[in-house]
Amino acid sequence: MPAKKADAPVAEPKQEEANSKKHDIPKGSNEVNSKSDSKKSSAIPSKRKAKTNDDPAKAPRRSARGAAQVQPDPVSLINYLFSPNSLDSCRPKDEIEDVKNRGTDLRTYSSSTFSPFEELMCAVILSRPISHGLGLRSIRTLFNEPYHFTTPKRIREAGFEPVRKALDEARTQHRQKTAEELVLLADAVVDHLGDGDEDVSLERVRRECDHDWEKEKEMLKKYVKGLGKTGLDIFGRRVQARWPESYPFADQRTLSGLQKLGLPDNAEELKKLLENHWTELNVEGSEGNEDEQKRRVFVQVLERAVGVDLEGNADAVRAEAAPGTKND
Known about the structure:
By secondary structure, the chain is an all-alpha fold. It is 56% helix and 0% strand. Helix 6 packs antiparallel against helix 7 (132-143) and helix 14 crosses helix 16 (290-310). It starts with 10 loop residues before the first helix and ends in a 7-residue tail after the last helix.
């Protein structure tokens, strides 16, 4: 977000103007004449002061930031977040262009469903000290043609150099270290976290931890290099659609996005909101039974909220979802 410009100083120009007038006094002029001229000048009202705010062209304007904004009700807001109209508000500009150029079948972090292994890859990438946009571009490059690095087997067969090449193509940062961590992740899944090099479910983690989310986090942190608290928060936020033991969960970054939209900034309260208004939500097409559908919708609300926040579009989304707009 561009830095806010500092307000231009007011007092300084007046002082310079006063100094300039002082230097323009001709030699020989006395103080009496100077004071007399000053009184005459002040007695003549300027045209600027004579004008009033009754002139529509000069009436003070309220900025969009300061204007009163109608807050949409939570159900309308959530339904708007699930509409096609909102998706671009959650995406960086280069992803919008990429989808236009490569088609809607392009797998993206913003709109696609990933396996737990893919979510773990994403968590490793997005927890690196890079911008969110670079992270999403890296994920699109790795998961789509020509690389398709979506299973441990695919990564292990390719090895370090092709993974590094994909990250080079994504024009991201920390490519060397990220490529190393992704190759080590594939090895860790085969050796400790999964059931073979084609397993992407990570069900072994759940079995060995007795479906206890706290134990699962400890196991993942132990075996996945580069996965700290931030990465575990990102993984937990997304994987709860499949792993009910971690539901409902929302990390602090996402709670901030929910608050800016005017939605509950508490995971339990958001869960209750969805359950209480389930039949009013336009969420057709969710997979699984009703409990699974509710978890998926919960995750999608979180993802849309954090995406909107990261792109700086919270006010625009609230305005579009408000009563009286074309989206009603």
